[in-house]
Design brief:
By secondary structure, this protein is mainly α. It contains 14 helices and two strands; from the N terminus they run ααααβαααααααααβα. Strands 1-2 form a two-stranded parallel sheet. Helix 6 (about 115-130) runs parallel beside helix 8 (about 175-190) and helix 9 (about 200-210) packs antiparallel against helix 10.
């Protein structure tokens, strides 16, 4: 998200998400962590500018291509994200969106094979989508990464993604999508959760936070901090991070806090936070998972 910096670019991305991804105004707002009314205004203004300027489909001037490419990658990234974890509704994911995002990113890479960030984004999508077969149980319930049956992961997609990001990191300037792909590769290459190289993941998040800061990067980095330095250190950092207006009242803050409190052994506080997160999310599978975590902490032997 940090790669799309100006309001004009944000408006263009929002409008394109409506046109290409078919995302609703509410889904786009949740992706940008802004009010729905704000997105509606930006889409309206973007349409007015296009109409007033008589914009046409043509290659942009060389000076504008970097910014235009950043906007295109952001669109593809957000379409994939909404498909991989739907922000609302009864389904955890939408395969139509993830499939289309991967297809379009492959086409883009065919046209700009030397662009490291395009390759990084494709690798990130492949490495992330490879876990999809293990993300839900027989009842359709969400299965967290640490509890997934890794034998179900798509080994072919992982191999392609790892090879792609390995080549790209060695040959192109490092960018945010490449760093995220490298993190995904470390998760995918771990045969067991305890084999995960959390120190390297934390180092990559530190670098990502430097070159492309954002609220979700902050939360993911804090989880990595917990795995390396312990949950109490991570809880202190979370208390500071939630001052960001984009995270105020966001269910993911409550979910991360619940996880950290659980790790720290504060089960009563963890239950409260899991239930608060469940009330705040609009995703039914996530609601059920968060409620189940709270219930698990009330079972005999845990409380």
């Amino acid at each position: 998200m940090a790669q799309v910096k100006s309001l004009t670019q944000v408006s263009q991305v929002a409008l394109t998400l409506r046109a290409v991804g078919g995302l609703s105004t509410a889904e786009i707002a949740r992706a940008f962590l802004v009010p729905e009314a704000t997105v509606a205004q930006r889409i309206s203004r973007a349409k007015q500018r296009i109409k007033a300027s008589g914009a046409e489909f043509r290659m942009p001037p060389q000076a504008e291509r970097s910014a235009r490419m950043a906007a295109v990658l952001c669109v593809l990234y957000l379409i994939f994200n909404e498909g991989y974890t739907a922000s609302s509704g009864a389904a955890l994911y939408r395969v139509d969106l993830t499939t289309e995002a991967i297809r379009l990113t492959r086409q883009l890479r065919d046209r700009v094979p030397d662009n490291g960030e395009v390759a990084g984004l494709l690798a990130l999508m492949l490495l992330t989508d490879a876990r999809r077969p293990a993300r839900t149980g027989p009842d359709g319930g969400l299965v967290p990464l640490a509890e997934q049956d890794r034998r179900l992961w798509d080994a072919k997609a992982i191999a392609e993604g790892v090879a792609l990001i390995t080549r790209t990191l060695a040959s192109a300037p490092i960018g945010p999508y490449q760093l995220q792909a490298a993190i995904a590769a470390l998760h995918d290459e771990a045969a067991r959760p305890e084999d995960t190289d959390w120190r390297q993941i934390l180092a990559l998040y530190e670098l990502l936070q430097t070159i492309a800061p954002g609220p979700m990067v902050t939360l993911n980095r804090i989880v990595a901090v917990a795995m390396v330095h312990g949950p109490r250190t991570a809880l202190e950092q979370l208390a500071t991070a939630e001052a960001d207006p984009a995270l105020a009242g966001h269910y993911r803050v409550d979910a991360v806090r619940a996880h950290l409190l659980d790790l720290a052994g504060d089960l009563e506080a963890a239950r409260t936070c899991y239930r608060l997160a469940a009330r705040r999310t609009l995703s039914i599978p996530e609601q059920r998972y968060l409620e189940s975590r709270a219930e698990h902490l009330t079972s005999p032997g845990r409380a």
